């Protein structure tokens, strides 16, 4: 019993998993064609096609069933349905077909998560007895997409796809209508919908169209795996015959006749099958369409299709735009054609990849002239205004247009003259020589080689730099016609005045002076000659020069332009250079150490009246020849500042090395006999700065008897200074240490132990 309960629970949960992953149905419909009819024996046989539509992105468990069950029923006069036949092995036809977006709207970009696949099942009814009642063929399957907006609990219910074959259709061996194509996958909110949902009927019968309520079959409430009960995923046809329930619309906004609402409301034309209106709400909407086929006023077949409209926001992808002189209200492009009769339009419309067709129309001389290419060309016969229109993708939802006005005006020509002194820099005078057939110029726009602008008719301009100057003039007349012209001016005069600003006029040797040349116009193409008055010269525009000797110097500047214009200027007695003293000194002795820290200094400076000594950056003296004792060893700085009466000074800095010295001397014997004299074998000397000291004592057999790293610790004649007395005799000592400048010193000798 426990095992059986476990298996039942396992099957239940597997069934629930299938239920939860089966929400995928988009829609479907049936059609049939008559294979044969036997009017004598009263038998008929039909071939039936079932088309199912699913969401491509449904889980794998919700793919098309490879094999389905179809029920065939007879509707009795009392309204009940009798089971006629169950087809258990109707096989899915391959391949599966992807339904593309509506090609009539090239602007539409289908969202990545919207995709529809079509699966087809084909089967025969087999021999059916001709009946005075209608046959109904039905397929039942759960479930619909739970994201549908216009019905209640869409994910809990499935769908029934049914077609009726009336007694008259059996008698005449009728072929049912077939839909031309599947409705568009995505439609744009607030855009006009105009979809042709009509059929093809090989028999030429009369049909009518209407919205109807989609049928419900199956669900998620079946037991175990849900395959037997009418509210399971795959209801059994014999156990679950018609009539079927219908979906519950979310009233009052939605109903069978208004499945999308909208303004105008989305409707279907009963004679043409065209679905039209303007959806105003974003979402997914299930729609049912019923088609009734008549011959001689007698009903042959009722065909039902239900499907899903996906309404979303669509960005406009095409924008009509032209290069123009002005734009009114963003849609009317005004182009002025001045002194010409032919116009090549420059089309700036975007996005070109979504534009399939261009439709240009112009009214010229009372005749409609048309062009179809992107950049059209039109000829206009005379002065006046001409009106036209450019339409992108005419007749498509992906469309935009531009109104065009072309004004043909008289010719306009820009021109000017100029005069200036070619050798001495000054203003250039410009004279407008432009012409307009309208007789009135209104605007002048001058550009002077990117150096300045003017809006005067006859301006003047002063250039600060030389060179070939492009001068542009653009003129506009009363009609808004514009023309421009460019002329080159060779501008190479010399400055009218030489202006130089030295960085210094007075100073001590060596005096460095930078001469800032403020003269304009000049550049490197000019010949520049500077004479600094000390025999030196330069060809730089603004040079720097160093005066080594004292004196009063005159400066001269000469400038020659590339076309031979010349100017010069002299600056007499301009730069006053005061001679500086020369600091120098000597000292004794030549070498210094820990034992010799005192030095004698001798002032050797020239052209000086006073001095200042600075020792080791701290101590100072004004003596001519001072004596100084350094406080420490190491590198010491001595600075002498020589000063003369004109305020100039010179400084000399030298460095002396006071070497730190360590000394260490070893005895050759000691007497550790307790008389307090010569009790230890110990070296003596200057120990400051000593590093890495080590002394060891060895007997004649090579055994170490004492070791220390303290230069102030001696050997007392005992083993390691704490053991028994060692015998008299000769011992070997080894001493190692480093000096303050890391020089390794090694000493080796004999120590006589005497008691």
Entry keywords:
Immunoglobulin-like; 755 residues; eight-stranded antiparallel barrel; 6 domains; disordered N terminus; flat; six-stranded mixed β-sheet
Q: Describe it for me?
A:
The protein contains two helices and 57 strands. An eight-stranded antiparallel barrel has the order 1-2-5-4-3-7-8-19. The chain has a six-stranded mixed β-sheet with strand order 20-21-27-26-23-24, with no helix packed on it. A five-stranded mixed β-sheet has the order 38-44-43-40-41, with no helix packed on it. A hairpin with a 5-residue loop joins strand 43 (551-560) and strand 44 (566-578). The chain has six domains: 2-312, no CATH class; 326-409, Immunoglobulins (Immunoglobulin-like); 412-491, Immunoglobulins (Immunoglobulin-like), CATH 2.60.40.10; 500-577, Immunoglobulins (Immunoglobulin-like, Sandwich), CATH 2.60.40; 585-659, Immunoglobulin-like; 669-753, Immunoglobulin-like. The chain has 755 residues and is mainly beta.
As for the number of domains, it is: 6
Spans where pLDDT lies below 50 across 5 or more residues: 1-22, 223-227
Largest sheet: 8 strands, antiparallel, barrel
Secondary-structure-derived class: mainly beta
Radius of gyration: 56 Å
Query: Taking strands numbered 1, 2, ... along the chain, how are they ordered across the largest sheet?
Result: 1-2-5-4-3-7-8-19
Which overall shape is indicated by the principal axes computed on the Cα atoms?
flat
Cα distance, first to last residue?
Answer: 113 Å
């Amino acid at each position: 019993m426990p095992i059986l309960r476990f298996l039942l629970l396992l099957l239940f949960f597997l069934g629930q998993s299938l239920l939860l992953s089966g929400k995928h149905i988009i829609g479907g419909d049936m059609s049939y064609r008559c294979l044969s009819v036997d009017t004598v024996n009263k038998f008929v046989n039909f071939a039936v096609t079932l088309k199912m539509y699913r969401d491509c992105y449904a889980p794998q468990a919700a793919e098309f069933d490879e094999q389905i069950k179809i029920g065939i029923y007879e509707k009795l006069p009392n309204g009940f349905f009798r089971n006629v036949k169950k087809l258990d092995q109707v096989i899915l036809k391959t391949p599966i077909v992807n339904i593309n977006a509506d090609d009539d709207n090239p602007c539409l970009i289908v969202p990545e998560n919207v995709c529809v696949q079509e699966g087809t099942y084909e089967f025969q009814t087999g021999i059916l007895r001709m009946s005075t009642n209608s046959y109904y063929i039905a397929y039942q399957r759960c479930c619909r997409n739970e994201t549908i907006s216009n019905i209640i609990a869409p994910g809990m219910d499935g769908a029934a796809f049914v077609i009726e074959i009336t007694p008259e259709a059996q008698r005449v061996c009728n072929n049912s209508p077939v839909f031309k194509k599947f409705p568009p996958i995505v439609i744009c909110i607030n855009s006009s919908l105009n979809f042709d949902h009509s059929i093809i009927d090989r028999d030429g019968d009369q049909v009518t169209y209407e919205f109807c309520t989609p049928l419900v079959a199956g669900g998620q409430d079946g037991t175990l795996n849900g395959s037997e009960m009418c509210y399971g995923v795959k209801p059994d046809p014999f156990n679950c015959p018609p009539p079927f329930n219908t979906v519950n619309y979310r009233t009052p906004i939605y109903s069978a006749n208004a499945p999308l609402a909208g303004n105008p409301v989305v409707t279907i034309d009963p004679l043409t099958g065209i679905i039209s209106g303007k959806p105003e709400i974003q979402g997914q909407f299930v729609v049912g369409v019923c088609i009734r086929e008549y011959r001689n006023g007698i009903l042959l077949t009722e065909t039902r299709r239900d499907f899903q409209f996906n309404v979303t926001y669509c960005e406009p992808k095409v924008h009509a735009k032209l290069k123009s002189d002005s734009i009114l209200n963003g849609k009317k492009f005004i182009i002025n054609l001045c002194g010409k009769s032919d116009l090549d339009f420059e089309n700036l419309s975007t996005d070109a990849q979504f534009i399939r067709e261009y439709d240009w129309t112009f009214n010229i001389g009372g005749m409609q002239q048309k062009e179809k290419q992107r950049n059209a060309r039109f000829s206009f016969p005379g002065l006046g205004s001409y009106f036209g229109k450019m339409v992108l993708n005419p007749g498509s939802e992906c469309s935009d247009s531009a109104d065009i006005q072309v004004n043909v005006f008289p010719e306009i020509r820009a021109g000017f003259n100029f005069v200036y002194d070619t050798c001495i820099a000054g203003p250039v005078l410009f004279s407008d020589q432009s012409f307009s057939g309208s007789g009135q110029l209104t605007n002048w726009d001058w550009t002077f080689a990117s150096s300045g602008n003017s809006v005067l008719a006859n301006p003047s301009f002063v250039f600060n730099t030389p060179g070939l100057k492009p001068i542009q003039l653009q003129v506009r007349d009363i009609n808004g016609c514009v023309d421009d012209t460019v002329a080159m001016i060779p501008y190479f005069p010399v400055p009218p005045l030489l202006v130089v600003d030295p960085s210094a006029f007075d100073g001590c040797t060596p005096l460095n002076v930078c001469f800032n040349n403020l003269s304009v116009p000049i550049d490197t193409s000019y010949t520049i000659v500077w004479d600094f008055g000390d025999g030196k010269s330069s060809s730089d525009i603004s040079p720097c020069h160093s005066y080594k000797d004292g004196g009063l110097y005159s400066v001269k500047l000469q400038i020659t332009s590339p076309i031979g214009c010349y100017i010069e200027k002299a600056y007499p007695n301009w730069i006053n250079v005061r001679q500086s003293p020369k600091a120098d000194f000597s000292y004794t002795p030549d070498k210094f150490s820990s034992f010799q820290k005192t030095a004698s200094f001798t002032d050797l400076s020239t052209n000086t009246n006073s001095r200042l000594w600075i020792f080791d950056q701290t101590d100072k003296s004004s003596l001519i020849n001072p004596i100084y004792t350094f406080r420490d060893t190491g590198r010491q700085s001595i600075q002498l500042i020589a000063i003369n009466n004109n305020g100039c000074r010179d400084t000399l800095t030298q460095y002396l090395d006071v070497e730190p010295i360590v000394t260490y001397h070893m005895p050759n014997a000691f007497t550790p006999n307790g008389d307090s004299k010569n009790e230890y074998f110990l070296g003596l000397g200057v120990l400051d700065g000593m590093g890495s000291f080590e002394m060891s004592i060895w007997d004649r057999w090579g055994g170490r008897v004492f070791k220390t790293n303290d230069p102030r610790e001696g050997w007392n004649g005992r083993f390691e200074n704490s053991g028994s007395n060692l015998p008299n005799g000769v011992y070997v000592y080894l001493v190692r240490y480093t000096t303050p400048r890391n020089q390794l010193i090694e000493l080796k000798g004999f120590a006589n132990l005497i008691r």
